[in-house]
Amino acid sequence: MNPAVTSLIIFAIMIILWIIDRLPMAYVSMAGCVVCVLLGISTLPRAMTGFTQDLIYLVAGMDIVGLALMNSGLAHVVGRAVLKLAKNNEKRLMIISFFIAAAMSAFMSNMTVVVFFLVIFKGVTQSSKAFTMKNIALPAIYGSVVGGVCTLVGSTPQLIGQNIIENMGVQGFKMFEFAPIGIPIVVVTGLAIYVYAYGHGKKVWVKSLARTTDNDSTSILMNAAVENGGIDFSQDVIDKKKLYTMSVITALLVIMLVSEVVTVGTAAITAALLSIAFGCISQKQAFSEMNWNVIIWLGGCFSMAEILTASGGMALVTSALSSLVTADTPPFLFFALVTLICMVVSQFTSNTACVLLFMPIFLPMAQAMGISPEAIAMGVIYGSSLAVLTPLASAQIGMAITVGFNFKEIVRYGILLHIVMYLAAIIMIPLRFPL
After folding, report:
1. How would you classify residue 330: left for phi > 0, otherwise alpha for psi between -120 and 50, otherwise beta?
2. Per the confidence metrics, is the pTM higher than 0.70?
3. pLDDT of residue 207
4. How many Cβ atoms sit within 10 Å of the Cβ of residue 8?
């Protein structure tokens, strides 16, 4: 059988197993890679390339930093301060976090914003039984996604798309040309989360709140907060030396993330090493309580994406989807299909790769059909950037796995919100750039 077809079949089986959720996610991802090696679709080195991705080191580093924050008591201190601002209201904290994350992501690295909020939320859930990580984390992550497409510098796909369209002779976008499209998407998404997703989310994962993931210390702490009325650190058991040391390390981490002098993975690993070196957490505790299930799952997923690309599987999918759009397709339908195709493909590959893949295909088609190339370029960028239905869609959504979400929960939580984002995008883009 054609290696491209075989790799797609294996990947489809992996997705089904993730949705069924009967086997550990890490087991499924690694089994898929190993099967590809055994069938000669990939070499072993290629099947392990996923473990060199920066996100792997970000997850590992932040896992250790998170443990050190809790061990030092700093997470509890920060959590109590945030509780006062939220007035101990979970829904209030959720929606405030969503809009703050969106505003920050318009000008900062989206992953930096996600890391910032997840650290805060660990302290909040540790400090009060009124809050659970699953109810507040995903809205903030969504905020980072939709906020990232409000400015030219909000996320990488805009910059990549800008470079491609300029090289193809199309005028590039200005800094805030994304705002008239992005801001309405942020507003309608926020309203949908507030009105619908908060209650829906509780129904989606209510049965899983009592479960813990293998060696997942975050889940253990989160469940304790839910079931036992919160983990309470009294002032006399907090080690002030560790607390002050961890405060300095956290400040250094934030500086590295915001300044972008190093990658987010390097920043996280550096902070993790400093946490161990200065005794905020022992190496034994860090390694025994790290979420290895998530780390291995992510590595396997990135490896599988590399296998799909090298085997030609992704090219088959791209070709099949591109064939849905022809020269006689009505302008608005052409635009809506382009945006939808990018959203579908971006669920399983990086949004940057999606822009690189589809912009050179659809932009010349639009020019030949007399359709606004700016509108189609925006459709590709927004379609690629707003994918939120799977943990593979973006690094931000992938981080949701680290706080206890599974594949099926993310899909069920996000399906309606994804439809809202899509409809908002295909309505707002033509208003700003008439077809």
Report:
1. beta
2. yes
3. 59
4. 18
* Contact call for residues 312 and 104 (beta carbons, < 8 A): no
First and final C-alpha spacing in the chain: 43
**Closest of 281, 306, 285 to residue 53, by C-alpha:** 306
**CA 70 to CA 258: how far, in whole Å?**
23
211-215: list long-range contacts, CB under 8 Å, 24+ apart. Answer: 213/291, 213/293, 213/294, 213/404, 214/24, 214/292, 214/293, 215/288, 215/289, 215/290, 215/291, 215/292, 215/293
Q: Which of 425, 329, 344 is nearest to 384 (CA)?
A: 344
Residue 164 burial (CB < 10 Å; 0-12/13-18/19+)? buried
DSSP state of 195: I
Task: Reduce the DSSP state of residue 107 to 3 states and report it.
Answer: coil
- Cβ contact 385:351 at 8 Å: yes
Note the pLDDT tens digit of each residue in 153-197.
788 788 888 888 888 777 878 888 899 999 999 999 999 999 998
